[in-house]
C-alpha cells in the first residue's frame, strides 16, 4: 500500500518521539513491502517560531493532501508561563482538529500484565482492565466563546453542544462497543449542566438503534473515582471534550504511564494519530521520554488502513519490549527514547532474530 503521511513533530519531546515512530513505520514498510512517504511540517510553538502561526497554512495544506497525519505534541513553557500571550501553541492543535473535522478522539487503555507491580494502583484492581475512551474532540468548552472583561476582573468560557455533534460520535461509539464487550458508559454532569442533559437525552434515544449494547451513565466526578477504584467495570466510555481530556490522563495510570497511551482522531474525511500526552518540556532533549505512546499511535494509523498484521507486529514488539524492560524510566526501565525506538525497529523488521531463551537479539545481548 502507498501512504503519504504528514509528520507534525511539534514541540518539546515531540521531535524525539516522532523520530522513533517514523523509524518503526519505515521498518513496517520494509518488512511488509509498502511504500510510506513522510513529509514534515511545523506546528505549535515551532510553527509560531517559523511563521508566526501555530498552524501555518503550509502545514494545514500538507495535512489535507496526505492520507493521514502523525502528530507529536505541542506546547512550550514560554507561553504557559505567560497567560497574556495572544498567540499560543495549543491553538494550532485545536484549529487543526476543527479544520480536519476530527470529531472523535479514540483512546484505548489497558493494564499491561508485566507492569502491574509497577503501577501505583493495586494490581488486583487493575489486572485485565481494558477500555476505550471516545472523547468528542471539536466542540464543547474548548471551542466556545471566551472573553475577559475590560477591567480583567472576570472571564468567561462557554460550552455548547448540538444534537448532531453528539449523534455522530455516539454512533461511532456504539458501533465500536458492538465489537467489544457491548457496554457504553456515558460520562457527564447531567445533574448540573444543560449540555450534559442534551448528551443523555440524545444518547439514550440513539441507544435504541443498538439493542445489543448496554448503556449506562455516570456523573464525571464519580467516574473519576470509579476509574481507579474499579476500572474493569468499563468497556467504552463516551464523553464530551474536556471530561475526556481529563479522564484519559487519569486513566493512563492504569496502563502504567501516560507515555504508553496512544490515540486516533477521526472524522469523515481525515485522520490524525497522536499520543495523549503533551510536550513534556522538562524532558526535551534528554532522551528520557517514552516513545511508545507515539509508536502505538502509529500502530493505530496502520489499523485505520486495515493493515492489521502490520499493526499487530508493532503492538507485539511493544509488548515484548515492556515485558523485557527495554523501556524508559517512567515504566521502570533504564533505556533511552532512542534505544527503545531502535529495539522496536529491529523487532518489527526481523522478529525471528529475537532469542527469548538467552535474551539476545541477533548478536546483541539486550539486557
Ligand atoms: N496533545 C498535545 O500536544 C498536548 C499538549 N499539551 C501541552 O504540553 C505542555 C506540557 O503540559 P503538561 O501538563 O506538563 O503535560 P504533559 O503530558 O506534557 O506532561 C505531564 C507529565 O506526564 C509525563 N509524561 C508525558 N509524556 C511522557 C512521555 N512520553 N514519557 C514519559 N512521561 C511522560 C511526565 O511525568 C510529565 O511531567 C503544555 O504546554 C501543554 O499545553 C498538553 C497536553 C496535550
Ligand atoms: C493541549 C490541548 C489542546 C488538548 C489536550 O490536552 C489533549 O488533547 O489531550
Ligand atoms: Mg490532554
UniProtKB/TrEMBL annotation:
Names of the cofactor(s): Mg(2+); Mn(2+)
Gene3D superfamilies tied to this protein: Isopropylmalate Dehydrogenase
Positions annotated to bind substrate: 97, 107, 135, 221
Pfam families recorded: Iso_dh
Residues at which Mg(2+) binds: 221, 245, 249
Keywords in alphabetical order: Amino-acid biosynthesis, Branched-chain amino acid biosynthesis, Cytoplasm, Leucine biosynthesis, Magnesium, Manganese, Metal-binding, NAD, Oxidoreductase
EC number annotated for this UniProt entry: 1.1.1.85
Site residues (Important for catalysis), renumbered to this chain: 142, 189
Functional pathway: Amino-acid biosynthesis; L-leucine biosynthesis; L-leucine from 3-methyl-2-oxobutanoate: step 3/4
GO molecular function, one term: NAD binding
Example GO biological process: L-leucine biosynthetic process
Residue ranges constituting the Isopropylmalate dehydrogenase-like domain according to the UniProt record: 4-344
Name this polypeptide is given: 3-isopropylmalate dehydrogenase
Gene symbol of the encoding locus: leuB
